[in-house]
Amino acid sequence: MAQTRIAEDGGLTSAERRGLFLEGARQALTGPAYFVAVALIGVGGLAKAAGFPPAAAFLSTLLIWAGPAQVLFFGAIAAKTALPAVAVTITLSSVRLMPMVLSILPMLRAPGTSRRSLFFATHFVAVTVWAESLRRLPDIDREKRLPFFFGFAIACIVMTAIFTQAGYYLTEALPTPLAVGILFLTPVYFLSTLVRAARAPVDWLAMAFGLALAPVTQAWVGGGFDLLALGLVGGTAAYVCGRFVTARRAEQAS
Amino acid sequence: MNLAVQDGGLAPYLILVLFGFLPSEVWRWISFFVARGVNEGSELFIYARTVSSVLMVGVVGKLIFSPVGALAGVPLAARLGALAIGFAVFLLARRSVLAAVLGGEAAIVAAGWWWGN
Question: Do B40 and A106 touch (CB under 8 A)?
Answer without folding.
Answer: yes
